[in-house]
Structure prediction request, 156 residues.
Amino acid sequence: MIKTDLNIRDSYERYKELSDNPMDIKSYVNLINNYNKFLTSKIFEGYEITLPARFGTMMVTGKKQDIKYDDDGLPRLPVNWPNTWQLWKNNPEAEKRNQKIYFTNEHSDGVRYKFFWSKKRILVSNKNLYSLRMTRKNKRNLAAFINDGKEYYIKN
Prediction:
């Protein structure tokens, strides 16, 4: 089976091949982690960062939610299960009606934010095969910034 998700330790093997005097893996991983932390801190501050070697740009973008409804008139939004279960515990009538509470992003005025990697000017073939998956910690940090009132670029 071919490994499709690569990480810093995988890139170290390639680095060793290309370098005349490679550093040890611990120093290499530490250097790359610190660089990634620097880049994500700039993204959290609201900057659009340009990645080295013309590998695109990264930023946080938002989009105003257009709430759509299904045939039963229910919104097509994710269910806020902890609040729904609390409602059902306090109100058995709501549970019988299968009433649910949905995430509407009221704290951000209905805007959904996400990390965005623009690959428009990348000089790599098959660039649609590359993907970005941010760590859970970065996603939680972004949520904390948004909950504290930080606003980012909003696409129309």
